[in-house]
Amino acid sequence: MNIGEASKASKVSAKMIRYYEQIGLIPPADRTESGYRTYTQADIHRLHFIRRARDLGFSVAEITNLLGLWNDKSRQSADVKRLAQQHIAELDRRIESMLQMTETLKALIHCCAGDERPDCPILQTLEQPDTSEDEPEERTGAVPRRSHGTRTAKRSR
Amino acid sequence: MNIGEASKASKVSAKMIRYYEQIGLIPPADRTESGYRTYTQADIHRLHFIRRARDLGFSVAEITNLLGLWNDKSRQSADVKRLAQQHIAELDRRIESMLQMTETLKALIHCCAGDERPDCPILQTLEQPDTSEDEPEERTGAVPRRSHGTRTAKRSR
DNA sequence: CTTGACCTTCCCACGATGGTAAACCCTAAG
DNA sequence: CTTAGGGTTTACCATCGTGGGAAGGTCAAG
Question: How far apart are the C-alpha atoms of A39 and A25, rounded to whole Å?
Answer without folding.
Answer: 15
